[in-house]
Structure to design on (387 residues):
């Protein structure tokens, strides 16, 4: 892929002033820390007995989530065995108006859930505000983030700006990627750890930008985290050398079920170079494909995509992400298809008038109809039969 040289090396002299931060003296070091939600603190009873809270796994340790074959063999013979064929599918749904604001107080009866086109009976329903668990996945390579380049400036502006919008109870982790993803800081409510991690983004190491590998790696690590979780992707959308293909990435992200909120960088400078004839047809096509990839990842995982041209758009983007994540409707149902075949099943969430089955009409304070959008994951993989 050919990238315009001037697009990569354009300086911040294009009316970009007023940005400053503290940078460390060395670039990122490779790390294998786990991006997993911190374990809960010890209970009052445990603390009274002098028990220490469980420590987070050491770097490189695997987090067991299921019994291994060895564990099964060590179970006592003749003991009771239990099996449940009941599956429950949990869906977090955000309903936003055309300005990105959350629409509250929609009754349970107005939600309709279809699985592979078949209506499902909603068994649990709730609405509320909760803390967020966010992994910031940041592109940082010599492809577009050369020191003091436009892409470098915009990437850090977006990342620092988003961190400032988080609340004290929110968990955040920072992952940067070039040739491979690197965990700069693990999930924590201590924002100082995230800011210290960001200070290491000064000099990019490689010119590769392996978006697919980084997204899938992070999403799979977050797959078992409960609650309101998401990946905030700050990137150009270009992938240069990933092991995974686009189709395999889509399937993996759909399986992981972690919403992706994508922020596409370099929109403004791309328009300038395109208008001045510095960008050829191949480069233009590469960037359009990159934008479409980010839109696809966001839409199919129940997130959103944003492509700001000006720095002043960032506060509105961060507010939209917060609104759609903090305020959600939580729906649960037991699928009518009970086959444990591991196949992918499509989900569609609609708002309907239960009396007529027609799309729900929502009006504003003045009684005028409102346009709205529904954000929910596009599907899930059914579990496989227990061996």
């Amino acid at each position: 892929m050919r990238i315009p040289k001037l697009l990569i090396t354009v300086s911040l002299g294009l009316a970009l002033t007023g940005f400053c931060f503290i940078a460390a003296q060395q670039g990122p070091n490779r790390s294998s820390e786990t991006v997993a939600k911190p374990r809960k603190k010890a209970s009052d009873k445990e603390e009274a007995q002098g028990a220490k809270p469980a420590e987070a796994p050491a770097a490189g340790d695997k987090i067991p989530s299921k019994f291994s074959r060895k564990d099964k063999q060590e179970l006592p013979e003749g003991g009771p065995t239990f099996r449940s064929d009941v599956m429950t599918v949990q869906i977090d749904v955000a309903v936003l108006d055309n300005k990105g604001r959350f629409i509250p107080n929609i009754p349970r009866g107005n939600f309709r859930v279809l699985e592979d086109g078949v209506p499902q009976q909603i068994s649990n329903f709730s609405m509320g505000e909760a803390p967020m668990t966010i992994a910031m996945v940041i592109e940082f390579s010599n492809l577009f983030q050369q020191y003091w380049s436009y892409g470098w400036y915009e990437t850090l502006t977006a990342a620092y700006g988003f961190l400032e919008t988080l609340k004290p109870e929110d968990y955040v982790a920072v992952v940067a990627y070039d040739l491979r993803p690197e965990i700069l800081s693990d999930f924590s409510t201590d924002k100082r750890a995230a800011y210290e991690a960001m200070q290491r983004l000064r000099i990019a190491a490689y010119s590769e930008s392996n978006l697919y590998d980084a997204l899938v790696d992070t999403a799979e690590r977050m797959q078992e985290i409960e609650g309101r979780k998401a990946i905030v992707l700050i990137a150009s959308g270009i992938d240069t050398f990933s092991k995974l293909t686009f189709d395999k990435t889509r399937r993996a992200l759909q399986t992981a079920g972690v919403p992706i909120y994508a922020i596409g960088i370099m929109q403004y400078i791309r328009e300038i170079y395109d208008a001045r004839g510095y960008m050829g047809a191949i480069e233009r096509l590469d960037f359009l494909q990159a934008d479409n990839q980010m839109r696809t990842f966001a839409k199919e995982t129940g997130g959103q995509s944003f492509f700001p041209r000006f720095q002043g758009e960032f506060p509105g983007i961060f507010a939209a992400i917060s609104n759609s994540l903090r305020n959600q409707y939580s729906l649960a149902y037991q699928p009518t298809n009970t086959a444990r075949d591991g196949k992918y099943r499509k989900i569609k969430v609609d708002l309907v008038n239960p009396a007529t089955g027609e799309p729900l009409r929502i009006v504003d304070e003045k009684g005028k109809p409102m346009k709205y959008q529904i954000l929910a994951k596009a599907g899930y993989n059914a579990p496989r039969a227990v061996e």
